[in-house]
Amino acid sequence: MGSNSAEYDGIREHGIREHGTRDRTGHGTTGVGRRDLIKRSAALGLISVPTMSFLSACASGGGDDQEKAKAGKKTAKNPLGVNDTAKLEFVLFDGGFGKEYAEDAVKVYEKAFPGAKVKFSATQKIQSTLQPRFNQGTPPDLIDNSGAEQMDMGTLVGKKQLTDLTPLLDAPSYDDPGTKVRDTLRPGIVEMGQFDGEQVWILYYAYTVYGVWYSQKALDSLDEQYPETWDQMLAVCAKAKKKGMAGWTYAGKYPYYLPFSLYPMIGKVGGREVLDAIDNLEPNAWKHPAVKACFEAYYELQQKGYVLKGTPGLDHIQSQTAWAKGDALFIPNGSWVENESANVMPDDFDLAVSAPTGLDSSDKLPFGTIWASGGEPFVVPAKAANTAGGMEQLRIMLSEASSKNFTGKVKSLTAYNGGTDGIELTPGLKSGVAALDVAGENVVNPRLQDWYVQLQKEKIGVSGLGEMMAGRATPAETIKKIQAFADETAKDSSIKHYKHQ
């Protein structure tokens, strides 16, 4: 969120970017072991946006709940029992993936239920637009909860504001009545939507590869290969600087983009258990030597003048534009960047993505360790008037035709495990698939941005990493500050807490 676009700030991002996604009082635990998830995810497909959220939602109840649509008759063509005359309201995050793919899927719904009126809208202001409606008990039926203003998933789940999507997952797929929807999804997608057990509260529609993005043409012009160790990274940046090109840039106004490469680097250097401890809000997790080493490595980029001048003042679009124009060699981002930067990227850019550079041969995990996971979180509110319709619209979107339409139009894969036949993969998409092949089982999936949105974006991102990379705080000061933020979140009884199993 980016995922992607506009603001991440619009970014989506992917939550970030405003793209994004992410999420999470008590002491609940996620119902899936990360190691199993990682193993299953390694086979994956790819891309998405990033999603995260800048503001946390206070999904409180109250208000006059809207009247529920009467159930329709369940048939082979209508397995979820959609009322064929009930209105459907669908609100999409207007980010890097655009809205055409969703509009196309809405047309399929309208054809299936010609008596139903569908209200479709797209906005970058998800939280400010929809939070009041959650509070009033009148939310839409389907929401793409992404971007800088993503509502906090953990809060929504903790306050029982979402519908369990298990009926959708157990329904026949749109293409094959003999196959359940859940059996058509990429590994890890179902688990990412779980928080405290078997229920699935979120369906991540896109699949994103996060990492370090660059122009293969620019790297070739330096007569260099992508650096696998930090000494090599510094040498490449030094060579780029001599040719008038900065080594790095990033979304300075939304520095929670930095973790797209920084977190998997920490996992590579110190092992998955370091990322798990950070996600679990364990005491002193941020004081691990691997965190210190990686923070110092990134800080060195700033201290040596290898970060594009003015980067702290750039938003995601401005930094991506400068990078696409050749002002900087590397940028941490998610797969949505290919579509989001398409209008400024030269035809011969030769977009590529790599797993983060490590420190040296002492790293716990091999080069190629990368972060990949679902993005673009779709939810059906518990108090929606037409929950069956919201799930049916998602069932349509998870068909082969809708998935292929999405991939062809926005250069990203979906949660549907397929849908690429006959589509010529773009350079970035092809590179992302190759990066997943190199990673094998070494795919990590930090959950901080899903479980604790405000902590991840505002505190760790803006107040922590943003200040460090602007040269206003040392790594040691930043680690101390971030650990305090994490401890504060761990002790806050109003926040639902999650742990890896």
From TrEMBL:
Q: Does the keyword Signal apply?
A: yes
Recorded coiled-coil stretches:
none
Give the superkingdom in one word: Bacteria
Bias (Basic and acidic residues) occurs at 9-26
Q: Which family does it belong to?
A: Belongs to the bacterial solute-binding protein 1 family.
The subcellular localization recorded is: Cell envelope
Protein name per UniProt: N-acetylglucosamine/diacetylchitobiose ABC transporter substrate-binding protein
> Which keywords does the record carry?
Signal, Transport
- Region Disordered, residue ranges: 1-32
The reply to whether Transport figures as a keyword in the UniProt entry is: yes
Q: Where is it mostly found? A: other
